[in-house]
């Protein structure tokens, strides 16, 4: 859609225009994988300008918050349940927004994580079964999540994957910080792939 704006321009004029159009870091990969909207920019002026780490593009019509009930529900899920819920949402969102190819690495790492954290929970399944929320609530939550930007759901998955409260010490050690780094690195690479490229520059 970006290129359609420049269809009438000769090639020699394209590069400077594209460079000028490069967004600030926080707006890169908007709308699906940008950072959260900049409150200063929204209020009229952002002193960080082209260096700002928050998104300067329009987020008006996209719901980016879950209601309280859904947030509580999500918080009470185990890491394995959380990833089992969020992974299909992310996969579906990536496909519907045309990002399936870019999202492959991130989704594969999250899948590995889901498998890794599902295994040790076998022993504690009896304990968690009692707190598992009713299926209809989970499907409503999943429907709400499907309307949210990829980055928002991904953030929830990353929080679930790295900061789950009911995770045991040994699980944390087993998962290690290195796979978190791997995941965050994959997200950065996906964002870079989605950022507009200055062709020929
Ligand atoms: Zn954005
Ligand atoms: Zn800003």
Automatic annotation (TrEMBL):
C3H1-type domain sequence ranges: 32-62
UniProt keywords, alphabetically: Metal-binding, Zinc, Zinc-finger
Zinc finger (C3H1-type): 32-62
Gene Ontology MF terms: zinc ion binding
The UniProt record lists the keyword Metal-binding: yes
Protein's name according to its UniProt entry: C3H1-type domain-containing protein
The species this protein was found in: Polarella glacialis (Dinoflagellate)
């Amino acid at each position: 859609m970006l290129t359609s704006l420049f269809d009438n321009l000769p090639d020699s004029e394209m590069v400077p225009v594209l460079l000028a159009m490069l967004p600030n870091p926080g707006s890169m990969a908007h709308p699906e994988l940008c950072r959260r909207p900049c409150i200063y920019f929204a209020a009229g002026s952002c002193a960080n300008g082209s260096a700002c780490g928050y998104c300067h593009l329009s987020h008006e019509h996209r719901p980016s918050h879950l209601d309280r009930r859904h947030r509580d529900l999500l918080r009470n899920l185990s890491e394995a349940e959380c990833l089992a819920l969020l992974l299909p949402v992310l996969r579906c969102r990536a496909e519907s927004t045309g990002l399936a190819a870019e999202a492959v690495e991130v989704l594969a790492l999250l899948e590995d994580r889901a498998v890794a954290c599902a295994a040790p929970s076998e022993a504690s399944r009896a304990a968690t079964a009692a707190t598992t929320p009713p299926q209809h609530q989970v499907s409503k939550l999943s429907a709400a999540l499907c309307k949210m930007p990829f980055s928002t759901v991904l953030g929830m998955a990353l929080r679930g994957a790295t900061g789950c409260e009911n995770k045991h010490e040994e699980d944390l050690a087993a998962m290690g910080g290195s796979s978190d780094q791997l995941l965050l690195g994959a997200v950065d690479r996906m964002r870079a792939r989605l950022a507009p490229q200055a062709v020929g520059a």
